[in-house]
Amino acid sequence: MTSQGLRASPEGIRAAKTALIDKTWSQHKLAAAVGITRQPVAKFFAGESVSRSCFVQICQQLGLSWQKVAGFPEDVAFEQSSKIRFKDADFDKLVKEVRQKRQEKIQNQCNIIQMLDIGQTIQLLDIYTNINVLEQINHLQWREIDDWLKDLKSESNFHQLTTYKRERKLAALEAVLQHSKLMLLGKPGSGKTIFLQNLAIECNKGQFQPNHIVVFVRAKEFAEDAKSDNKFNLFDYISQEFISCNVEQEFTQTLLIHGKLLILIDGLDEVSTKEIEKITIEIRKFSQTFYKNRFVISSRIAAQKYRFHGFTEVEVADFDQEQIEVFAKKWFVAVALNHKGDAEIRRNLFINKLNLPENQYIRELSCTPLLLHWICLVFQAKNEFPCNQAKLYEQALNILFFRWDEVRGIKRDGINSDLNVAMKKKLLSQIAAISFEAENYFLPKEKILELIADWLLTNQLQLDSAAMLKIIEVEHGLLIERSQEIYSFSHLIFQKYFTARKFIENSQIPTWEHLVSHMAEKRWREVFLLTVNMLPNTDEILQLMKQKIDLLVGNDRKLQHFLTWLHQKSSSVSTRHKAVAVRAFYLVCVERSLYHSHCASIYTSGYNLEYALVGNITFGSDLALDEFLYSTIACFNDLDFAFEHNLKDALDYAHAFAIAFNEAIELVTAPKLKQALQKLKTQLPDIDRNIEKFREWWQTKGQVWGKQLRYFLIKYRNIGYDWEFNEEQKELLQTYYDVNKLLVDCLNSATDVTPTVRQKIEDTLLLAIADIEKVNNS
């Protein structure tokens, strides 16, 4: 069939001439703007037949409706003219034929993905993991800071606060099916591009929207080509794409008119500010002219300024646990090139270690696909996460600051070339330190702008604070708008990291004294660890921490007496472990015996301190026996509480008590102690025979029996004392344990601590003031 052209009506010609005069153009200049010869333009103004594509482009350049110029009703003109040619055509067959011609081009465009620090090419389907979207954009919601704080039960769920708890997640693919025009917004590295590439591949194979032909447009490339040709025309751009696949422009136009294209425009945020206005205007005009087609446009969430009419906006959700595991499973095959069996082992090891409490903040970062890939890459090297996590976070930040854009050849428009990455880090350190000190995880926009303005003034920089905030938000995604004008750091660990950097910027005694004043506050733990990770020499701060810890209990006579006993008892035990590790062991044993399981303030640290000192402690005969004897005391307290409060699980506590006591008796070698404990055992009624009879005996004779047990433990093992600590002393002892654990963790994490300082700290750890003075004077 031959193509039928269009003619301008007399009224259309008059309107076109008026528009030409208004633009002060000649017919020759109009032809150059359209990118055609002058002959079709002359025929257009003479009312002669012109090809449909030229006709439409001439009208677009003049800002006129081609339907009105042709004398057709706007909503049916092209449809009618197309029916003349295609009235008997099978559009499904046409779509299939064009998609077949386009298949190789789409595969080449979209089936290979770019992964950070990976040399080999990666097939998209080998790594692709489905993403979800949120149907409500967070920063458009109205929520107060108090609303966010209500949801922040603890720091451990900070990464889950990306949205309302009741926000419904939707599979991204489902969102595309539901909305013919979709704006896909997301943070840096959230998986927007790979999703669009996967969408293109699936459509290209006829498995998604089989009655459509996919067009994949990288917004940055379109802008660059348009700028070089001075021709921001999306129709021409797509037409050239189709022509390169042997699809005539007439067919491209017909398919567009009839809404047979799925048009994917990726990375609108990557277009420079000089071209973004022209690009958005062109997309608006194109999507309204060819409104029957399906569109998906992706952009970083904070970069979105223009809202396209008729487009539904959704936000890419963070990866959940299941998505992390799916991605990791694929990663260790496709990227690490492991065999499937080995990959499964690696994946399981990776997930298990990622879920450990000490890796909470690495786990938080892994919710972002880009950072999850990089974390897998780090883990692959040693099957471990690095001990120095400060370096890990520093590298993660560098990815967000510049490396991810760098490897993709994207240059963002900064507001000042003098504002380099180092200065941005200093600015973020200022914001982080001030807000974290005040325990502010969420800040109103005006406060953020005030902090930025103060920093700019201090550093004598004549820059706009609002523009600075937008750069950090858009280009790096480190500060995010949680809801209307309420900001926070994207990840809590970044706030803590930058807080640590701020302390290091001012490495002086007053600075360290101020930091050490926060030692007993658990939320500061990571700040301490990151600080000693980054300091070139940690002697000063570690010694200040040790002095502060010793003074913590220095004025409490009962606790000092307890520490004296702790030293004496530990010194009497025969073991190959460090004396400080044995002291830590007995400190934990006493802590456990002070509480019952239902106590709100129950001690939960386990044997973490001695593990941090020596690794897995090997129980010799003395330690094993005392472990079970202290377990017996702890179980005694639990059972006593259970009976007193008529708890349903009293029988379980009774069995636990019996098991611990029997194990202790088995380990006893000293005849007199063994005889005494066996005699106590004969006094206990059979638990399984009659629990009520056992309860009755316990309530009348249990306390006396317990005092006898303690008497024998004190006499023969020097343990089992009833220290009679009040609640304040119990809390102080718990704090004492926690800050000592922090000190040991800092000691182990420090990049450079002199052997003398290390030895001095270990020798005097968990000692009374008098014993410390003896060690120092020896």
Describe the 3D structure.
With 778 residues, the protein is of the alpha/beta class. The chain has 5 domains: 10-86, lambda repressor-like DNA-binding domains (434 Repressor (Amino-terminal Domain), Orthogonal Bundle); 91-316, 3-Layer(aba) Sandwich (Rossmann fold), CATH 3.40.50.300; 321-400, no CATH class; 414-505, Arc Repressor Mutant, subunit A (Orthogonal Bundle), CATH 1.10.10; 573-741, no CATH class. It is 61% helix and 7% strand. It is built from 37 helices and 12 strands. The strands form 3 sheets. Strands 4-3-9-5-8-7-6 form a 7-stranded mixed β-sheet. It has a 3-stranded antiparallel β-sheet with strand order 10-12-11. A two-stranded antiparallel sheet has the order 1-2. The longest helix has 27 residues, at 691-717. The protein starts with 9 loop residues before the first helix and ends with a helix. This is NACHT domain-containing NTPase. Residues 180-300 form the NACHT domain. Pfam families: NACHT, NCH2.
Outline the low-pLDDT stretches: 74-89, 599-604
- End-to-end separation in angstroms reads 106 Å
Q: Output the structural class.
A: alpha/beta
Radius of gyration: 36 Å
Oligomer: single chain
Indicate the overall shape. Answer: elongated
Annotation field: number of helices: 37
Number of individual domains: 5
Q: Helical proportion?
A: 55-70%
**CATH topology value of the largest domain:** Rossmann fold
Provide the spatial order of strands within the biggest beta sheet: 4-3-9-5-8-7-6
Mean pLDDT: 86
User: What is the CATH class name of the largest domain?
Assistant: Alpha Beta
CATH architecture of the largest domain: 3-Layer(aba) Sandwich
* Fraction in beta strands: 5-15%
Domain NACHT: 180-300
Protein name: NACHT domain-containing NTPase
Pfam families: NACHT, NCH2
Organism: Nostoc punctiforme FACHB-252
